[in-house]
């Protein structure tokens, strides 16, 4: 894995996150409860999907999302492709980014920020070029510049370029702008996934 020197999290960015997340958690609690019940009934337990992702400086952490897929397997005991396991309810939750709501816990714990490069699989770490690895200098985010610029419909190279641009041009105003555009795009359900893919295509390096 390429060595990355993490940047210090600006106190104002952390304060901004908490200022929005703490009251937001109270306001969103009915929606969180409703989605949890729907997932429990429609997909089953566990309701919350836990997965290890690479955080700041590549440090692994457990990210939280509402479950959107079944655990269906083939005759060999291997999981079926994502397209076959993604349920109708799961597609709906993803289309409005409701599956991301449990990630608020990661923000409260200081493992993520509201805005930043999306946290990716740990196995990708060894595939980054030195410039791509710079996305690990900061906390990953629930949303980011790449998400409002095309989300999973973007090629990996473009997503990483936008991640690095965000790091080099960060400001509180930029975070606020990204959050507002994210809200608008979620309502319009824009660029949810790559054409022909239920989830993001594997990054090969």
Question: How many domains?
Answer: 1
How many runs of DSSP E, i.e. beta strands?
4
Query: What form results from the Cα inertia axes?
Result: globular
Arrangement of strands in the largest sheet? 1-2
Instruction: Catalogue the unreliable spans.
Output: none
What value does the average pLDDT take? 89
User: Beta-strand percentage?
Assistant: 5-15%
The number of helices is 7
Structure explained in plain terms:
The protein is mainly α and 205 residues long. It has one domain. Helix content is 40%, strand content 10%. The strands form 2 sheets. The protein has a two-stranded antiparallel ribbon. Strands 3-4 form a two-stranded parallel sheet. The chain is globular.
List keywords for this structure.
two-stranded antiparallel sheet; globular; two-stranded parallel sheet; mainly alpha; 205 residues
What's the gist of this structure?
With 205 residues, the protein is mainly α. The protein is built from 7 helices and 4 strands. The mean pLDDT is 89.
Topology:
Elements: H1 11-42, E1 48-54, E2 60-66, H2 82-85, H3 88-95, H4 104-108, E3 113-115, E4 141-143, H5 145-148, H6 156-168, H7 172-188
């Amino acid at each position: 894995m390429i060595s990355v020197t993490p940047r210090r999290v600006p106190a104002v960015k952390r304060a901004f996150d908490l200022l929005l997340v703490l009251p937001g958690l109270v306001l969103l609690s009915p929606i969180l409860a409703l989605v949890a019940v729907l997932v429990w009934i429609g997909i089953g337990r566990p309701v919350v999907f836990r997965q290890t992702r690479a955080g700041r400086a590549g440090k692994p952490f457990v990210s939280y999302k509402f479950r959107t897929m079944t655990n269906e397997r083939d005759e060999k005991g291997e999981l079926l492709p994502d397209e076959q396991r993604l349920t109708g309810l799961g597609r709906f939750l993803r289309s409005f980014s409701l599956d991301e709501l449990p990630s608020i816990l990661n923000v409260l714990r200081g493992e993520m920020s509201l805005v930043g490069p999306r946290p990716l699989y740990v196995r990708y770490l060894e595939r980054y070029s030195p410039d791509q690895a710079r996305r690990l200098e900061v906390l990953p985010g629930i949303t980011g510049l790449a998400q409002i610029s095309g989300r999973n419909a973007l090629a990996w190279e473009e997503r990483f370029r936008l991640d690095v641009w965000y790091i080099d041009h960060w400001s509180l105003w930029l975070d606020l702008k990204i959050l507002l555009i994210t809200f608008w795009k979620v309502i319009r359900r824009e660029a949810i996934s790559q054409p022909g893919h239920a989830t993001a295509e594997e990054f090969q390096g």
